[in-house]
């Protein structure tokens, strides 16, 4: 099958991994990205999107998979009139819906990770929506072949997290630090209202791919404080950390009962106080966290790789 992916060409993005996995399984695929800095991307001017549509037409795909949420409805409707099947795969929370372009476009199938969004789109908008789980790439997020406790000595990281330092995340991390939790932070702090008091914990290092997997595995605890807009879903970090063999503590969501092979109460928290309590417990019980991490890793390898995801998507359409 020949597949056009509309989204980011950045390394370690969902689009990168979809493209890699399609190619790995014998499909032909290509990522079509938007020009960064073009005002037409931000505002509802369709010129840049129609140029993109022309490039996609020249590629003559069997399937168009749109990952961006900012794609102009004219792009979608134009290509549908040409007979191309289009699907929308949304890997983010509802705060990324921008101007709600995807509700104004006529995709054949919408894929969402959040049961709340699925129910809303099906019940209120009468759209064809499929629920899916995000994934990790076992050829990129490679679990190190080493004893975890020995590997942890090499990195000497008690609690780590990575990603953009948004205000909600800053505040939670500040509370942890104030309670004596030794943090190591990776990712982007060039965001509005960043808390500079966290500078002493920040590495100024943006981690991706196999390097990210090594650091996740080498950390004693990976903290995953989910975005407040993850109503009934989890994020990509949840799958990457578990798929790298890390021990992860995340915000509780009911969907954890379906995703994990163990009681989710063991590896989640419902408040910052509970997070502090569990961090302190697992730092004192290394064998327990290593055993849990291995059990979850084995479960995820059999269910939540991008190889599983692309097969699910193709079967669904």
Outline the structure in words:
This protein is an alpha/beta fold. 41% of the residues lie in helices and 15% in strands. The strands form two sheets. The chain has a six-stranded parallel β-sheet with strand order 2-1-3-4-5-6, with helices on both faces. Strands 8-7-9-10-11 form a five-stranded parallel β-sheet, with helices on both faces. β4, α5 and β5 form a beta-alpha-beta unit.
Radius of gyration: 20 Å
**Secondary structure: number of strands:** 11
Give the terminus-to-terminus CA distance.
Answer: 13 Å
User: What is the typical, i.e. mean, pLDDT?
Assistant: 95
Pick out the low-confidence regions: none
Order of helices and strands: EHEHHEHEHEHEHEHEHEHEHEHHH
Please give the largest β-sheet. 6 strands, parallel
Fraction in beta strands: 15-25%
Structural class: alpha/beta
Question: Major sheet: order of its strands?
Answer: 2-1-3-4-5-6
Shape: globular
What is the percent of helical residues? Answer: 40-55%
- State the helix count: 14
